[in-house]
From TrEMBL:
<feature type="transmembrane region" description="Helical">
    <location>
        <begin position="356"/>
        <end position="373"/>
    </location>
</feature>
<feature type="transmembrane region" description="Helical">
    <location>
        <begin position="252"/>
        <end position="271"/>
    </location>
</feature>
<keyword id="KW-1133">Transmembrane helix</keyword>
<feature type="compositionally biased region" description="Low complexity">
    <location>
        <begin position="67"/>
        <end position="76"/>
    </location>
</feature>
<dbReference type="Pfam" id="PF03595">
    <property type="entry name" value="SLAC1"/>
</dbReference>
<dbReference type="InterPro" id="IPR038665">
    <property type="entry name" value="Voltage-dep_anion_channel_sf"/>
</dbReference>
<dbReference type="InterPro" id="IPR030183">
    <property type="entry name" value="SLAC/SLAH"/>
</dbReference>
<feature type="compositionally biased region" description="Polar residues">
    <location>
        <begin position="104"/>
        <end position="119"/>
    </location>
</feature>
<feature type="compositionally biased region" description="Polar residues">
    <location>
        <begin position="57"/>
        <end position="66"/>
    </location>
</feature>
<feature type="transmembrane region" description="Helical">
    <location>
        <begin position="318"/>
        <end position="335"/>
    </location>
</feature>
<feature type="transmembrane region" description="Helical">
    <location>
        <begin position="466"/>
        <end position="487"/>
    </location>
</feature>
<keyword id="KW-0812">Transmembrane</keyword>
<keyword id="KW-1003">Cell membrane</keyword>
<feature type="transmembrane region" description="Helical">
    <location>
        <begin position="292"/>
        <end position="312"/>
    </location>
</feature>
<dbReference type="InterPro" id="IPR004695">
    <property type="entry name" value="SLAC1/Mae1/Ssu1/TehA"/>
</dbReference>
<feature type="transmembrane region" description="Helical">
    <location>
        <begin position="411"/>
        <end position="434"/>
    </location>
</feature>
<feature type="transmembrane region" description="Helical">
    <location>
        <begin position="210"/>
        <end position="232"/>
    </location>
</feature>
Amino acid sequence: MIRTTKEDFAQVIPSVSKTITCHHKTMNRFDSILEDTDLIDYQLDQARCRSLNSLATGTNGATEQQSETSTISISMPPTPSSKGVGFNEIYSQTSTPRGTTTTQNNKRISSYSQTSTPRGTVFPESPKLPRSNTNKLKDTRFDSFKTWSGRLERQLSAFRGKEQEPISQPSPQIETIPVDRYFDALEGPELDTLRASEEIILPEDRKWPFLLRFPISSFGICLGVSSQAIMWKNLATSASTNFLHVSLKANLGLWCVSAALMIIISFIYALKFIFYFEAVRREYYHPIRVNFFFAPFISLLFLALGVPTSITQHLHTSLWYILMLPIFCLELKLYGQWMSGGQRRLSKVANPSNHLSIVGNFVGALLGASMGLKEGPIFFFAVGLAHYIVMFVTLYQRLPTNDTLPKELHPVFFLFVAAPSVASMAWTAIQGSFDHGSRIAYFIALFLYFSLAVRINFFRGFKFSLAWWAYTFPMTGAGIATIKYSLVVTNLVTKCLAIILSALSTLTVTGLLVTTIIHAFVLRDLFPNDIAIAISKRPKATRKWYLGSSHSKDIDQYLKYVDSSKAKDIEASLTHIPNSSN
């Protein structure tokens, strides 16, 4: 510590905090503030100086002497420009009230004297917080989305031998989000953009945990790669492409890569299901995201269709029933909502991603027919065809919002090509030949493919995202259907068309796979915060001001909100009563 004398006091006082002790004398107030710190001249008697020096050096004698005195800490302004800071305010905050004892002040002095300041430093180092206090500073804003409020995470930490965090109060249970809230709080064709008048329940000032940002649409990668395994299997085994001398090793390699991707993505999403079940539940109730829950099972169907002959040549029929059962359950829910009306009716939620629920029927019919089944494949083909016709007309007219898709979502238009391409192959497998029904579906797919391919603007002007994977398996499906068609109509045109479409799909999948790896592991911008799952159940209270507004637009918006809150469909009415009281 630096010892100061009366002459050096004026130089030291601007940069350090002085502690002046007094013997139970009552100090009412300082009458004025000194304007220049160089003119400060306090009358310090010998006892006060001795007390100051003892406190600075941290000796034991100072602790005994301070038991009879009270202290006053005064922080002087660092520069003369800080005029106007009243000593009366400082004194009133730190001095001992009249008639009280000095026990607490003595304890405070004792604690400060134990933390000695190293020589040559001006300010003492701040004491380190205990570990239990640092744990309390952990961000708990995501606990509402954690399964069991993080209890499973604490159990795993205890199993690994880590120090237990203090158990905080359980966070309030997240209420069930009615479907009309998704339309009120979100906007855009994919319902993934938050309206300006809404707020989210998760923090916007930081990046969320990875599992919260990992969407169900990530299974689109599996769809693209696994469909390539089917295409290269057909290129190697079809008579019309024998001149290419394609080896079955390409099919084996692609199948192994697609199986590995399926395992990795399924494992990650399973972790999200375990640790952030609320986020998965919100994706399931999202009127657009629910379509992507078909993607994992369609990918498994693709893996079954593209399995290499070196692994197995015949799959057991029980596998078909196992894979089609979850698709059938999802269709009962989704198609029932389309018919029942309400906020989830098809004219309200129609989007190109709805093709995924249709494609599942045709892929299942294709796999079942290739296994020798009859009734089951025809059943799913009929269900898929009926709903495809209705959805095709609805999407062509753009009834939901009459808005065009933004550039970032242009790739999903290629999903129009997927359903008729797979339908032509499924009917060929059911009938045993590429007849007129198969050709009608194939020509529809081919025309839609060309009508989208000639629009160059659909392929430029927007940044990369997971939506780009929507290009892949529709293009691959068109290539496989062309290979099947070239077996019936064998000429130079069909063979060249099969090679061109197959090459384009392979180049697209390869480019997207490399780009996805770069954005995921190098740039790390592949998974932004998923705003669609973080909306609140109730709107902001500021909607009440619409009642007193004379503006016609404000009144219309308020009436629209009131009407939408009353329009309950079947799904929206199934809310949990205990949660509604939260």
